[in-house]
Structure formats: C-alpha cells, structure tokens
Amino acid sequence: MKNKNLLQKFGLARTIIALFLIALFIAAPFAGVSIKDSFENVLSRFGMFSILVLSLVPMVQSGCGLNFGIPIGVVCGILGGVTSIEFGYVGYMGLFMAMVFAILFSIFFGAIYGYVLNKIMGDEMLIATYVGYSFTSFMCIAYLLLPYKNPVSVLSYGGTGLRQQIPVANYWMKQVIGNSGNKMTMGLISKFLSFNIGGVHVPIGMFLLFAFFAFLVWSFFKTKTGTAMTAVGSNPEYAKASGINISRVRFVSVILSTAIASVGIIVYQQSYGFIQLYQAPLAFTFQTVAALLIGGASINKATIPHVIIGTFLFQGIITLTPTVINGAFNIDISEILRIIVTNGMILYALTRRNKVNE
Predict the structure, then answer these.
(1) Residues 6+ apart with CB under 8 A from 192
(2) Nearest of 295, 254, 266, 291 to residue 121 by alpha carbon
(3) C-beta of residue 265 within 8 angstroms of C-beta of residue 78
(4) Which of 1, 35, 88, 253 has minimal CB crowding within 10 Å?
C-alpha cells in the first residue's frame, strides 16, 4: 500500500520515463556507448537547461499558464550577450555584464509581454505562442539593423548585421586539460569549482548558479507579492475578493519569468560556446515546457522539485536516446522519439490541468 501511494505521488508517467532512462543507462555499454560520457552529458545538459526551465515557474504560479513565449526571454539574453561582447567585457565580468544587460532588456520587453497577456486573460498559452514566434521573426529583421560593430559579432562581408552564430570562446570560456590530457575549451561557469568523479566531469558552477536562482525564486514566493502570486494562480476569485491586484501580480510574474529566462540562456551559451541568433530561440520553447511537465507540474502549479526532476528526466532521455539507439540498431529515430516525448507529455499534462501529481 505504501509503495502504491509512493507511485501515485511520483506519477505513473514520470515512473515510466525514469525506468526508461535507467534502461538507457544500462543498455549504453552494450551499444558501445561510454557510460562515463553518458553521465557527463546528462549532467552538463541539466546545468545548461535548468535555469531556463525554472523561468517558467512564476508565470505558472500566477495563473498565466505555461510560458510558450519563452523565446522573448531568450532573445533578451541574446541581446545581453551580444551587448557585453560589443563593449569588450571578458571573463566573469563579461558574463556578469551580459546578465545585467539581459535583465534590463527583459524588463522592457517583459513589460510589453505582460501587458499583452493581461489583455487576453484565459487564452495566455495560445497568445504566448504567437507572441514568441512573432517576436522572434521581428528580431530576425532587427539583427540586421542593430548598430553592433564588433568584428566577432557582425557579418564579415558587409560589416553590418549580426551573424547566425557568435563564438564566445575568447570571452566566456577558458582552455582546460581534459581527462585524456588533451586541451578543451570550457565555459567559465561550467568550469567554476568543477571536479571529476570516476572520470565523470561534474559542472558544479552551473549547479550552484541554478541553486542560487532556485533559492531566489523560493524566497520570492515567501514574500507578500509571491504569496499573492500563488493565490492568483490557485483561486483568482478568492484573490480578487482579498483585494489583490490580479493584473499587477500577473504583470510582475511575466517580467520575472522573462528575466530568469534571459539569464538561463546565457548559462546555456557559455557552455555551448556560441550565441545562436535568428530562429534559434524557438527551439527552447517545447524543451523547457515539456521538462517542467514531466517533472509533475500542471498549468496552474509548478515547484522547484518539478523543475529538477523534469529537467533531469527530459534531458536524460534526449541525450541518451540517439546515442544508444544509433549504437544498437544503426538507425536514427532520435527526432521521432524527441517529438513523441515532448508533445506527448505536454498533451498528458494539459488533459490533467488541475491534477498536479497524477
């Protein structure tokens, strides 16, 4: 009976996905895939995506639903990173200034985004999807017109307009000696306090930064504004009767989500090694939403444990599936499985909009 209650609390869907992930780890050596590399890749991708997934929590808690407009925050992070490079900031100062610029951009664009969502209460997720696509397309034009001049960032043949990918190796990364003695380039946050366990590199810096932002989000929801935000998401009628300004609370949650997403993409970029522009922000929408839903969140309740569990499970599946399947069967169905997992979990969660742990 106790095991049954534990299964119900964790959720059948998450149990199946967790078992599948364990099976992939077990099958990896038989498919010729290094188990050490598998663990290292999963840990690295968890660090890269965790803050992005965390950014969804404020909007979910305020009743704005899943943030399908996360590309707005991603674009703000891109602008912050490019601006930091434009001014020549390097090292940890470069990363810090990129985050500062990103947050400033996110306050401006997040305010516009929040104003739009307050005008269409009840259809936030539908409209957010269109806003994300529209804003990304608009920025594809803006990237060609913005007055950036750094040769690293601009198109070489014209001297104006930003590149498709901007390398950050000389700004946010540093060369280190790998396990095999060869030189490798690693992001400064990924490198910070990192160490090896049994040949597996553990990027402590990214974990610590995620823990810091998770603590900030947790602390925020202990404040008066955070409590009001939770009340608005749980029961807007009760919140209105209590004198809470629903529009203001939702407005704050959208700006907060956008700001956290802008920082999250910078963490991703310093690990990946490039700032990706133009249509790239759209790739993060369903990955982050699916990860949060796999963790057990619904469209009106999300917590930090949901972020941790979901990000680890989702990134584990996405990372291991292609390598194990390709090694075992010499075929590539990774994209098919990614679509099934991503959209299937979103569909599962949306059909249980008020049942968080089902």
Answers:
(1) 204, 205, 208
(2) 254
(3) yes
(4) 1
Torsion region of 199: left, alpha or beta (phi above 0 gives left; psi -120 to 50 gives alpha): left
Q: What is the pTM of this model?
A: 0.87
DSSP state, residue 16: H
Query: Measured in Å, how far apart are the chain's first and last C-alpha atoms?
Result: 17
Domain boundaries, the chain: 49-280
Alpha-carbon distance 288 to 264, whole Å?
A: 11
Classify burial at 265, counting beta carbons within 10 Å of its beta carbon; exposed 0-12, middle 13-18, buried 19 or more.
buried
**Tokens standing for residue 291:** 């990860």
Radius of gyration of the chain (CA): 21
Angle at 248 between CA 76 and CA 226, to 5 degrees: 85
Q: C-alpha distances in angstroms, 99 versus 81, 176, 270, 354?
A: 7, 24, 12, 35
Written as one string, the DSSP assignment of 194-226 is: -EEETTEEE-HHHHHHHHHHHHHHHHHTTSHHH
Q: How far is it, in rounded angstroms, from Cα 192 to Cα 187?
A: 9
- Residues 231 and 156: their CA atoms lie apart, in Å, by 52
Q: 28-66 pLDDT, tens per residue? A: 777 777 777 778 888 888 888 899 999 999 988 888 888
Q: Name the token pair of 14.
A: 């998450």
Q: pLDDT, tens digit, for every residue of 313-356?
A: 888 887 777 777 776 666 666 667 667 766 766 676 566 554 44
DSSP state of 66: S
